[in-house]
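Appendix B. One record, verbatim.
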Amino acid sequence: MVELQPLLFFDEQRFAQKLKEDKPLTVFKDALAAANTQFDSRFVEGELVDTLIHERSAFIDRILGYAWNQFSWDKNIALIAVGGYGRRELHPHSDIDLLILLKRGNTKNYQQNIEHFLTFLWDIQLKIGQSVRTVKQCVQEAKADITVATNLMESRTLMGDPALRQLMASKTGPNKIWPSPQFFRAKWDEQIARHRKHGYTEYNLEPNVKEAPGGLRDIQMINWVALRHFGVDSLAELVDREFISEDELNFLYRGQSFLWKVRYGLHYLARRQEERLTFDHQRRLAEMFGYRDNQKLAVEQFMQRYYRVVLGMRELNDVLLQYLDEVILRQDKARKVRAINPRFQVRDDHIETVDDTVFEHHPSALLEIFVLLGEDPSIQGIRAATIRDMQRWRHLIDDEFRANPENCALFLRLFSCPGKLGQQLQRMTRYGILGRYLPEFGRIVGQTQHDLFHIYPVDVHTLQVIRNLRRMDRPEVAARLPLASHIYKNLPKPELLFIAGLYHDIGKGRGGDHSLLGAMDVVAFGEAHGLPAQEIRLLKWLVEKHLLMSAVSQREDISDPDVIQHFATLVGDQIHLDYLYLLTIADINGTNPNLWNSWRDSLMRTLYLETKQALQRGLENPINRSEWVATTINEALQILKDQGISEDQARAIWTDVDQEFFLRERAGVIARCTLAIHHRKVGSDPVVFVEDAGMETASATRIFIYTQGQGNVFPVTAAALDQLNLNIQDARLNTSSNGHTFDMFYVLNEQGQPLGNDEHRVRDIVKTLTAAIKEPSSTIFNVQRRTPLVLKQFNLKTRTYLHNDTGSNLTTLEVITPDRPGLLAHLGRIFLRFGIRLHQARIATLGERVEDVFYITDLDYQPLSDPTFCQQLQNAICMELDERNQESSTSIPGKEPVPWQ
């Protein structure tokens, strides 16, 4: 047995004695259980995780030694630790990677003992990853697979003759196979593929602590390539060789310890090998690590720390791999040097300072380097030595630096660069420059919002918004967002849009309204950078109102001329509308691109175009609602006349239909729905008419439902659409005084798309809805679709807000609740039970929650006026919807229903 460090918690003499007295299987199991218990206790009590993982490895060394000695071996076989276990790193449920190494190919003498040894390890419930190879086979496998070569690099002898492992190591070293340049290139390609799998970001919602960018694998990558090239046993030996500085080494060790702690905690909580930091584990680890709710949730504080650590690890990985690239892959290539100015030059397509005193003597160069990168897209990156110099001197960015007009001009110049602005800002963030130049930005680095809607930390979202804006003139974006692209190409100063994007969320996490805080910050920025007063006013308004257009388009009835008039009044002029439209689109797509769909696009486009017309008409000339309705009716009558339907026949169908129907729908839509009613086969049967809706392209599928004498069919319709896996985006409900319904639903399929020309699906919709409306009692209201697991981790409490709108004579009810299948059908039944008439529903799904707005009255078409009744309605909604969500295992407290106002 190899000499092992003493373990205070493991009494070897007692263990050895019990082996003589009891069954080995029982003795080993008891020892492992006792060790796991004490390791867990020490972790919970806060002991350093470095100590725990090394001691766990040392303990397993001891256990494996005793197990190995239960059998008879000779000097031509050895037990070798490889991989992470070879590095003496062992987390609670990590694989224990073993190599049984044979000197020669004849295994007959060992086969039975090897099988019994491995079976014994499995029986005592060790999680073993094993291979049995000769030295020759190790060489062959390592040549063919760099993963095997990497594992063997980290090997150490547990039992047997150390000379056997040394022989294997000599035959698999860089002078035999995988020489340093090939090894480095292969491992770098491996890292690129791994980063691609995780979206090239360290900022995933539920990051993989081990494999994601900036994670533990990136740290191991540094070790592997450095040790392979320099032939040393640890990175500490490379400080004197100037590969890594003392500060960098300590920074790496601190980051590694934090990530080890998180990984250890994941294994502890999951009771298995878990590398993904899921929402549930994030909350539990935050509590375990001592974070407490204040201005930010405890989990958001913990995740901000996590993201800042992996950002730092990614930065160090960048620097060291760039250095290795220069000394390994590029050392024999001709050095192409091109001067840029007295401070900078380009060497091998990478920018560098002309000497290591540039940042010290010219601090403005800390900003200038990114401007030069933006102005010359042929420069691929920054050389490692220059990044290190930048890190060394970035402390020079202080108040005096920020107040320097030269630096202010450089920073503004960055926004006009033809190169990738988002990439330069990302580099500035990664190298710690942007957060120092703009301290308000530094506060949001790594800051998360614990939900499924905001899928990036605030800083990453901000840079993504800027990228979205800069791409507006690209052909592929113009094809997808033609109106936005056209507007962008005609902006007078697009750089103002980028500055607004930089500041729109910068006030988050400070408490208070982040829009107002950001507006104050952008004013200070504009004044400090000498922007004209009118531009500062525009920036202030954009940041303060950056949520306005999204809210109006998704939560208000934009078919109502009064809504358009009010919004146009808030916007004021075309310039403000153009900038706000572009910022809103970039913001939504930068928040969660998966939630952007054709329906949201159509809402935004409609609001923009209607508002543009209102501005062109003049704010002093609002549309007359009565004239609008009359015009729509006349246009619909003309279309119907051309189809052989007289005015009397049409008006008979429209008897007692509320004028809102003609206000919300276009004449062509009304005419087609009227034709469907006129041509129905049986007079009492419901009419279900399905078509795609949209101006230039389909934005949703429109479903029109007409019934006679049935009144409120919303609950039945919602339940049937849920069974059809269709998601309601908008519902416009009209019930006449004689009980006829003229209901319009806009739906998307599960992929967020309209149905298109799927005739089979359309027939299925018509058949299902017709049957459900004719026999409501047969409609299945039970939820048929399962709630996705990730949604169950957000057991948010339902909130309701209710107020009367004197202009529309309707009551507005807002329901914020977790997203669950069957939600609208359940709400519809509550409305039915309370005698509520639903006129319109605006549906907005924001990650794990929905924010639905319902426009309601009582059965007499009057807004709700009894405070007691309103409170009862709100209480019922909150109680019943929350009961549906009790299958979730954890909860985040929500607010009580807002009292009647």
